[in-house]
User: Fold these one by one.
Assistant:
Number 1:
Amino acid sequence: MRFPLFASALFAATSAACGGNGLLSPPPGLPHAAAAAACAPTDGPAVTVYLSASAISSPNPAPPNVQLSIWRSADQLTGTWSLAASRAQGAAVRIGPAGEFVDSAARGSITVLAVSADLTVVGHLDVTFASGTRIQGGFTAPWIVRTVVCG
């Protein structure tokens, strides 16, 4: 039952991207994505989506990259998550080439359209960082197995 829901959401998202809004086109310079388990600041479950200039094989991709954390378990990811300080439901950081800077999100949102049975996460982001840099685009992030213990 979950696959048809995923397929419907993916079809709708793909149709939207083809309609010209480009939500599923990767952000410029960040064509690769992956997702993995993480811990929220309260030590609860979280998922981090990594966007990178190069292929991602572990939860520590080479810079430059963007890391989008949503403070929910994988089975609760679908929805739009705010990064606004007053009601943050996640966080984002941008790491520069060679790790020369770390830029935290000032505002924005992460929308997860679907999570498949194999935990591939499909969504889009619209994030403005403290430096004023704005990153928009979509991602299809295959799951990387990572064991974390929160709490």
Note: Helices lie at 2-21.
Number 2:
Amino acid sequence: MAKLNPMAAALLIAAMPLIASCAPAGSGEPGAAALTPKQAERLDRQLAGKIPGEPIRCLPNYRSSDTIRVSDNILLYRSGNSLVYRNDLKGSCPGLARDSDIMVVQQFGSSTCEGDFFHLVDRSSGIRGPTCVFGGFVPYRKPAGDKG
């Protein structure tokens, strides 16, 4: 068996978390590779029985009644029982999944659009956190005639 020099061994050990994060966990949906089992279950539960449609660039404010933080990369916007919009952020938004910070959206007009920014603000200290960028909004609808 070949022996690794100490420097190569240290690099390999340091890279293991990065390599492991490439393995899918939970849902087979795009962007689901970094989800914890609890996050994957939450995403699967919210999208169960719904079929994805064509992404839209902007989501009018009146179309969303509830924001669900799935992970640091995925937001869901609920619009009634049969329609959910999924937003895969353009990059990670560290701390978003904690659901304790306030989301402050920099919005232009009456819609939130792909490429718009938001940042997180610590609820207790008021300190501004990371700036994050919305991706496209993918509608997930229950098929016609599905009453469940």
Note: Confidence is low (pLDDT under 50) at residues 8-12, 14-32.
Number 3:
Amino acid sequence: MKIKERLFRTAAKAAAGCRIRHFRGHGVHSPFAYRIVRTIYMKRHTLPACGVVYDALLNAKCDRDGARIIQAIFNDTGCDSCMLNGHLITTANYGNKQCLVIHTNMQYAINDNNVYITCFVMPRRNKSYYQACMQAVKNHDGMSIDLRSVILLFHDDRLNKEHIKL
């Protein structure tokens, strides 16, 4: 690993460690986001380590904590399909026509009406990927949640435009 990447990761972790603004859901005004913070993010170390999405993320060299969070988000939101870097990995056939799209790099861009959640895994891996993720958050018109190991963009018109950093 390059020394610049190592320094960037260290600085990003230090900045995230100092950030306690929405810790435990305090200051989160959306009931939807508050539920995600309380039931998924706060219990991220006790989430089960199993599922199709979890296994696919581990095969793609993602960290276990982020894989657990994304598997829990997939189960909790009722998405009926999941794509990882442009490849379909599971379909649940709930009939909602909602898709969870996971990116491990910025090479794959999916603009589909059926995308419900876009996830950026390990956004602080390097500076260029982090800047691209932050640009995607800035251009996004809906709710976004930064869970440190995962950034979630929700494409739901019922949710207010809000960026929550945990």
Note: Residues 3-18 form the longest helix (16 residues).
Number 4:
Amino acid sequence: MRSRKPYTIIWPQYFDLKRSKAQGRRIPKKFALEKVSATEIVTLAKKLGYEAQYEKGYKYPKSWWDEPGRVVIDTKGKSKSKILIELAKELKKVETKR
């Protein structure tokens, strides 16, 4: 098992507009989106210069029935909340271009 020290786990549910904070959303509603996949998060994290990896088969504990998958990111010393906001802003840019 690898050490989790430099890594952080990011779940797609953190960005879900339909969820409340109590249901697992971790970012402000103005940055949230309706549907975000783990593979999109990996792509954008790599674009932002992070080392990211998709792990399939894992389920978010607060909604274990949802689509499985999570993203593991090398944080490079940054806090999880700052990384989430960076990813959310980038996701929002991609969403507006569609």
Note: The chain has two helices and three strands.
